[in-house]
Design goal:
Strand 6 (160-169) and strand 7 form a beta hairpin. The relative contact order is 0.18. Strands 2-3-1-4-6-7-5 form a seven-stranded antiparallel sheet, with helices on both faces. The chain has one domain: Alpha-Beta Plaits. It has five helices and seven strands; from the N terminus they run αβαββαββααββ. With 183 residues, it is an alpha+beta fold.
Length: 183
């Protein structure tokens, strides 16, 4: 199961590296204890298909109360989804199989990737810390963010750093930033 997460996460990293303005949709889940392998299997069976752009990734998370996993859909909003579209009946069957494994589905969001530090190593940065923020002046914040990341580039080493604007949902922030490291 960890291999599935790693391979999908690696694909997502490559996607971000190639496309600076990517749309990202997060669906936060609280998976019932002991049912993680079933959720990973069902997810892979349905989503491991060729896509028009981007990726579908299942992540194990531990940074929000009541959320154990999240599904991340990322790609070019003008060229979204699977190459071979499925019927509504297939979607409903998939959701019907997944739903019994969840305690809850909550606090989802849609965002746009603004910055991705490409020098970072996904393989060496398997742990993440995420923050939702509300910059007083978003344009000034972007400039300051770029200057800050540039000034600490040597310190960051293999760490991956991201910045996204939150377009819909979330917990009240307008932007999210993350820092990935070895632990």
């Amino acid at each position: 199961m960890k291999k599935i997460y790693f391979l999908l996460s690696t694909f997502l990293l490559l996607l971000f590296g190639a496309n600076a303005q990517t749309s990202i949709r997060y669906i936060n889940l609280d998976v019932k204890m002991g049912e993680e392998a079933d959720v990973a299997r069902l997810f892979a069976e349905y989503h491991d298909v060729e896509r028009k752009s981007g990726a579908a990734v299942l992540q194990s998370v531990g940074y929000l109360g009541g959320i154990s996993h999240r599904i991340v859909f990322a790609g070019d909003p003008a060229n979204w989804g699977e190459k071979v579209e499925r019927s509504d009946a297939e979607w409903e069957a998939y959701i019907g199989k997944m739903r019994p494994h969840f305690n809850d589905v909550n606090r989802s969001m849609v965002s746009t990737n603004l910055r991705w530090r490409k020098e970072g190593s996904w393989e060496k940065s398997k742990a993440s810390k995420y923050w939702e923020i509300i910059p007083e002046d978003p344009e000034q914040f972007l400039k300051a963010y770029d200057n800050f990341i540039k000034s600490i580039d040597e310190i960051l080493g293999n760490r991956v750093v991201t910045l996204e604007s939150i377009d819909l949902g979330g917990m009240g922030g307008t932007h999210t930033t993350s820092l990935r490291g070895s632990d």
